[in-house]
Amino acid sequence: MGVVRRDGHHQTGAASLGQRAVREVSPLRVQTATIDRTGLDALIVLLRERWSVVVGPTVRDGAIVFDEIDGIDDLPAGWTDEQDAGTYRLHRRGDGALFGYAVGPHSWKRYLFPPRSLLWRANRAGDDGTGDGFAVETPDEHGAMAFFAVRGCDLAAIGVQDRVFLGPYTDPTYARRRERAFIVAANCSTPAGTCFCRSMGSGPKAGPGFDLALTELLDGGRHRFLVEVGTERGGEVLEALPHRAAGPADRAAAGDVIDAAARSMGRELRTDGIRDLLYANAEHPRWDDVAERCLACTNCTLVCPTCFCSTVEDVTDLTGEHTERWRSWDSCFTLDFSRVGPHPVRASTRARYRQWMTHKLASWIDQFGVSGCVGCGRCITWCPVGIDITEEVRAIRARPVGREG
Fold first, then answer.
1. What does the alpha-carbon distance between residue 64 and residue 90 come to, in Å, rounded to a whole number?
2. What local confidence, expressed as pLDDT, does residue 101 receive?
């Protein structure tokens, strides 16, 4: 998994994962193996038995989204996605690939940091509800979940959010969900036109943080999956499946799939010195150009797998006997998000877009030690007017107007 150091260059390794979410890899008898489609189906069934809910990719409403799955029949077999700025379309593939797509509008953020969650509820103390105090309850509404077919960019995004929510101040809702999650990664074979995870060091191969990782191998009539073990409990799950030890040919074939995906990446983003570049160009005319196109619709922040802005709302009943506190996603693109007193701090679309991109690619590094972008390209695909974060950085880099970084 790649992260960006304070000097704007990449480093790799488990340092990009939250301290409390990393599970050490123990020496295992089986490190890599291969399974067939029957074994893959058995994996999903086993995960359902042990983790209750398995969430994975499926086709719905003209997109590949995440939802609860029961077996391989729910996976997007034979589907791929065509993506460009402001464009997303599904097409049929000429094979039966189960993971022959990039990423859709959903990210795993919605299961670890849900769009709307109940933080606590309180009822007036006393059996008759007339006491002087309140009894406060913190709900725990979700059990363990297994995340199936997590792309490298999304695994990196989970690592970024680990840093946000697990330290130095721990978010209990996120921590509970994160600790219980079993992660099956799926190395990417088919990047979209908006993908640039290679630039961010987060893909197409999944980095540390998975329990198991799959690479789909389509070799003529042989449809199999290389399985890599990332944790001790991942090894225990693999041992319970029908499998065979992987050979050099299997590992070489998996490497070829990942290499081909890296070569076909749709976009790129130069990250060297990017933090200082953006800090030095806060008054660049490019911000005016993008503001003329930006609708401030918040799509980019909603589909982003790392954005974490939220708002809190307290709700009470008319009698005053019961109250609840809810947290919902918010966006730095909304006018009220930066309101202090009667006026917002960032009143213009120009200021709000600049805040989002500079935070994502620069000040995020100061806050959390990593970039807030993993190169998934969702913000480009799902922008109604096709604003491209890689193009905006390229334009500023081509004609910087600020001081030398």
1. 8
2. 96
Q: What type of residue sits at position 226?
A: L
Contact by Cβ (8 Å): 217, 224: yes
Q: How many whole angstroms separate alpha carbon 28 and alpha carbon 237?
A: 12
Residue 250's Cα: distance from chain center in Å? 28
Other CB atoms within a 10 A radius of the CB of residue 318 amount to: 6
- DSSP line for 30-85: -SEEEEEHHHHHHHHHHHHHHHSEEEEEEEETTEEEEEE--SGGGS-TTEEEEEET
Query: What values do phi and psi take at 343, rounded to 5?
Result: -130, 145
Other beta carbons less than 10 A from residue 36's beta carbon:
15
User: Could you report the average pLDDT of every consecutive run of 10 residues in the chain (405 residues)?
Assistant: 39 36 46 94 96 95 95 95 96 92 95 92 71 78 88 96 91 91 96 95 94 91 91 94 93 95 93 94 94 94 95 89 91 79 78 93 92 95 96 93 55
Tell me the domain boundaries of the chain: 2-263, 274-398
Distance CA(396)–CA(278), nearest Å, equals 8
Element (H, E) at 233: helix 232-239
What does DSSP say about strands 212-219 and 10-12: parallel, antiparallel, or unpaired? unpaired
User: Is 22 in contact with 13 (CB distance < 8 Å)?
Assistant: no
CB atoms within 10 A of CB 52: 13
Three-state secondary structure of 291-344? HHHCCCCCHHHHHCCCCCCEEEEEEECCCCCEEEEEEEECCCCCHHHHEECCEE
Q: From the CB of residue 255, how many other CB atoms can be counted at a distance below 10 Å?
A: 14
Which H or E run contains 152? helix 152-166
